[in-house]
Design a protein that fits this description.
alpha+beta; 161 residues; C8orf32 fold; two-stranded antiparallel sheet; 3-stranded antiparallel β-sheet; 5 strands
């Protein structure tokens, strides 16, 4: 399966401007395979280790590639202070400012996953009577894991299961 086969076709509700911004920043690889067949997810795993820069500077690429794994990316997210500002910073600004909130942390994690050879996948968990939560998901050996920035420890890193 080629990365160009991915399109964003799944939403619980119509996309908001917020979600469209996130998807535009991750072009051309987006959320889910165009097929609704569950077997199509079997091929979503670590992408070939591309040496494309995706617009990052050499210093930024060294920092992101130095994270080496989803666990390293999560360690960096955990070390960042959580900020409560009503912002939607780019992954570059998150790296520069070394702080983020839930959405920015997930977007940064997806960008870091991409640099380290994984498809940049985001999942928006919509809440009825609480705030939404956004996570970056990845797949290793057919098992799904998650990266996230949160004030709640239970809403952060998940090993692939």
């Amino acid at each position: 399966m080629d990365s160009r086969d991915y399109t964003c076709r799944w939403f619980v509700r119509p996309p908001t401007a917020f979600s469209i911004i996130a998807f535009a920043l991750l072009e051309p690889v987006l959320l889910f395979p165009a097929s609704s067949d569950p077997d199509s997810f079997k091929n979503i795993s670590k992408m070939s280790n591309q040496r494309d820069s995706w617009g990052w500077t050499p210093a930024e690429l060294r920092k992101l590639r130095g994270l080496k794994s989803p666990h390293g990316i999560q360690r960096l997210l955990n070390d960042m202070p959580y900020h409560l500002a009503d912002t939607a910073w780019s992954p570059r600004r998150v790296l520069r400012e070394n702080t983020s909130h839930c959405y920015e942390g997930a977007l940064f994690a997806a960008a870091a996953l991409r640099v380290n050879g994984y498809p940049p996948l985001l999942l928006d968990l919509e809440a009825e009577h609480d705030t939404d939560h956004v996570i970056a998901i990845y797949r290793v050996d057919g098992h799904w894991g998650a990266l996230a920035k949160s004030n709640y420890t239970g809403c952060r890193y998940r090993e692939p299961v």
